[in-house]
Q: What sequence folds into this?
């Protein structure tokens, strides 16, 4: 409530540091985001080098998805922003993240429809982050938007489950709320990629509904303990990008 009142009465400021004037994420806070260097185009995992194939998915990607990409690693500034946008339901954080994703993303190819991963039924009031990101992407790139999916039941929190449990938790989780054009190419948008089980389940529903290809774009990817470590050269590249 206090954050909502501040958002209403005070002039807009960077939603991350809440100090620099303006509604967008300021340059200093953007520089603190951790981009994924050399990401696998199939599963979105970091490779920290130019290996011939992805050490995690071996270029097989995630089920039902043609490709996956994420804006940044989930941690630090990105984690705070997403926490404010979701748990805090802060509209300025939602709007700023949506603008940031839209401006930093290019369609992975010809796209016919932009679709968000839908909210859980009975979620708390406030803007839905994935939906706002999808609408912003559609607007910036002149693409059709459709809230084509619905969640059948409250989804379990994926980060609290083991890999096999994640797969079971999302079985038949989604349904089509409206028909989609047969053979369409869909850009599926979500906030956080953890195991990819939720994205794969949503993409499966879209494919069953007639989509020919489904690509995914997320704000952030949850880091894993077995992620490759950056080399000294990669660290220099990341530092230079932040400057």
A:
């Amino acid at each position: 409530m206090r954050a909502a009142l501040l958002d209403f009465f005070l002039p807009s400021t960077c939603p991350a540091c809440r100090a620099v004037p303006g509604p967008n994420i300021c340059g200093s806070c953007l520089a603190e985001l951790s981009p994924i260097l050399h990401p696998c185009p199939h599963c979105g995992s970091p490779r920290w080098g130019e290996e011939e194939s992805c050490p995690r998915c071996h270029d097989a990607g995630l089920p039902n998805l043609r490709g996956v990409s994420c804006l940044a690693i989930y941690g630090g500034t990105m984690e705070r922003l997403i926490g404010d946008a979701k748990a805090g339901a802060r509209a300025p954080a939602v709007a700023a993240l949506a603008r940031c994703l839209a401006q930093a993303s290019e369609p992975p190819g010809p796209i016919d429809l932009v679709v968000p991963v839908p909210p859980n039924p009975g979620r708390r009031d406030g803007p839905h982050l994935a939906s706002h990101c999808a609408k912003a992407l559609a607007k910036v790139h002149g693409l059709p938007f459709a809230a084509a999916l619905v969640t059948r039941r409250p989804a379990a929190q994926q980060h609290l489950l083991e890999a096999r449990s994640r797969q079971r938790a999302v079985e038949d989780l989604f349904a089509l709320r409206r028909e989609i054009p047969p053979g369409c190419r869909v850009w599926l948008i979500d906030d956080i990629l953890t195991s990819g089980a939720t994205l794969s389940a949503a993409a499966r529903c879209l494919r069953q509904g007639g989509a020919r290809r489904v690509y995914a774009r997320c704000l952030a990817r949850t880091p894993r303990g077995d992620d490759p470590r950056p080399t000294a050269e990669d660290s220099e590249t990341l530092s230079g990008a932040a400057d």
